[in-house]
Predict the structure.
Amino acid sequence: MVVPAPELPARVRIHEVGARDGLQNEKAVVPTEVKAEFVRRLADAGLTTIEATSFVRPEWVPQLADAERLFPLVREVSGVELPVLVPNQRGLERALALGADRIAVFASATETFAKANLNRTLDESLALFEPVVRRAKDAGAWVRGYVSMCFGDPWEGAVPLPQVVRVCTALRDMGCDELSLGDTIGVATPGQVRQLLTALNADGVTTATLAVHFHDTYGQALANTYAALEHGVSTVDASAGGLGGCPYAKSATGNLATEDLLWMLRGLGIETGVDLSRLVATSAWMAGRLGRPSPSRTVRALSPKEQ
Amino acid sequence: MVVPAPELPARVRIHEVGARDGLQNEKAVVPTEVKAEFVRRLADAGLTTIEATSFVRPEWVPQLADAERLFPLVREVSGVELPVLVPNQRGLERALALGADRIAVFASATETFAKANLNRTLDESLALFEPVVRRAKDAGAWVRGYVSMCFGDPWEGAVPLPQVVRVCTALRDMGCDELSLGDTIGVATPGQVRQLLTALNADGVTTATLAVHFHDTYGQALANTYAALEHGVSTVDASAGGLGGCPYAKSATGNLATEDLLWMLRGLGIETGVDLSRLVATSAWMAGRLGRPSPSRTVRALSPKEQ
């Protein structure tokens, strides 16, 4: 039943991260051809932005070590944008050489995560990204900046708002076209979401350039998304079938499931262009490949049989 | 991290339904002494309203066939209200005889569910409840009216809003002190929630007399709860550990988990009086008794070891 709520966006673009953020955090390493099929099926379900892979050093993330083989298999899929993550200049060159025209960099809002993830201070990590973003822009690419740990950090706990805003504005000033505000450990609640969005607007970062990226570790992802929609956010990251564990929490508590998001958006009359049945079928298929049930409640409820 | 959102209630009363709605829908039949221990632990965690059991005919709901033995074991627990469900006059007399002073009746917003649940038309079922509510009020009891299938019905699909409002106002007119608006099959989205609350207010049903009761079949329960809080609702039903399957959906997709709700309320700075750690420990203990992991994401994330 469709009942719109006032003042929500008429249309939301789902930035599908299952093939990258999802599979990167799954224990299993999925064969390249299965990944390619996954991306094709996601596109067939109507998703228009599908983050395809990450050009990290293969030994860092074995799950995505096949980026060079995967990307050529999917880059001709029609009607979709296929952003890829790059950790540094070398990863960027690998991606550009294969024809990638949507690039994402992955920054942290906290010192400790910058240290853990990149072995650098926050400022050093931003200095590292600056030439990467510039080179990507010079090559004509669209650039997304991920900002992880925006709402909490497993070591530091609460993250000071001015620090998050500083990282966001730095990425914006480098030339990022879009920022994805990440709740990497899933601790945020709606008041925090509103507070950060308001603070970013006050510093001149417009809502149209912002995406939200929630993890469902504590079951908060969809409520936080709703709060973001109320603020006017119209780009939402989600992972088909809820793929992607989180190293700081047990079992199936990874990304917001695209299907659960889609159920809400459909009910609110918000256009996405995505076909729920096809997406559920795709996630049920992928769950079979991974050998475990999908953590998405919508996938479980709508799948024809117990996975 | 606590960040309030404007215009939300300062305090929320959680109406804990795990021991009744939760266990009623679990496959396993839990021993009476374990149920009593569960209620005591819930009270110890700070919950002040714990629905204890249902005085249905034992052959209808074998899981709750021990109401007569259970209620005396818990009625002296201090600091808590212990509402009990009664299906009819006979169940009410059984409950009153044991000293119950908080009574709940379970109505349906749809013809087909009234038929399936009570083998009566909607009007016949309301006529059945009228003397039950009157007798309970005459006996000095506080009465809650559950209205199930407010947002969708497995047979009828969408439920006409005027019909839901009619059932609610009928229960109010009988003398119910509180109405619990149930999304029994978990299909609602936030626009529907706002629409129903607004319609009820327009018919003179005040928000202070309303509770919301969401099932998480499609992962929507917490987002819907947030929308209800924004409307001013300050009584929320939830089930410790997310206990309670749903006959129309598979596996662990029952009630909103009290812990997931509590994580959000804590983050929003909304008082509940409930201690999250104690509640998680209780749900982890109960999951052990039931022999399956809790479906609550917060319970999974905070439990000391894999259940």
